[in-house]
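just leaving the lab so this will be short. what follows is a protein written twice so to speak, once as letters and once as structure tokens for the fold. can you read through it and tell me how you think this chain folds. thanks a lot i owe you, the record is right below.

___
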Amino acid sequence: MLALKNDYFPPAPSVTGTRFVPDFQKVHKELQSKKHVTLNLLWQEYKEQHPDGYQYSWFCHNYRDWTGHLDVVMRHEHRAFIFFGGVPEVVVPDNLKSGVTKACLYEPDINPTYNDLARHYETVVIPARVRKPRDKAKAEAGVLLVERWILAKLRNHRFFSLAELDRQIGKLLQGLHEKHFQKLTGSRHSWFEEIDKPALKQLPSAPYELAYWKKATVHLDYHVEVKGYYY
């Protein structure tokens, strides 16, 4: 008989004594999928349905305790400046929400963490205009090229470690860089060494350390709360 894990079939909400215990899996799903939904709002809805239910502090504490048992995830580190061996004068990203808080033609509002990274590497972030793909046409063409020459070639391969996958990607990437142009002289690698690399600024002595920014309210006990911890 196949034993099914509780991760796939979580237990139904339970009642402890006379107080109804909320379904924290549903709470988590609401927070992840619905914009502007907060723990306080979900707690208020919980109290409307169960007036004798738990208070807000218990609700928050037990939700954080529940999220601590979720499956772990792997963090990917992307360090393009280190790969290139230098820093460009200007970085032109998409208007992705994780990088651009508010899109604007003249003064876009850059995410504080992204802006902090730009200050560290002494570069300027100028996002592409909304619905203007020509602002980053070379990047879009490069993505399509990598998908065809690397991802498509690896579609039927099976890898048993990240190191093995990285080595294979590295080989295909090097081959793509050194592949000679059909209508021009040289290759992407030779053009980078001749044109782009001399224009790059030197990397700082220390790499950027990722930091998260949060607006916090000072409590009456002169502490601020960050992810369940008080400072």
Observations:
- Helices lie at 24-33, 39-49, 56-67, 80-84, 112-121, 137-151, 162-178, 188-196.
- The chain has a mean pLDDT of 86.
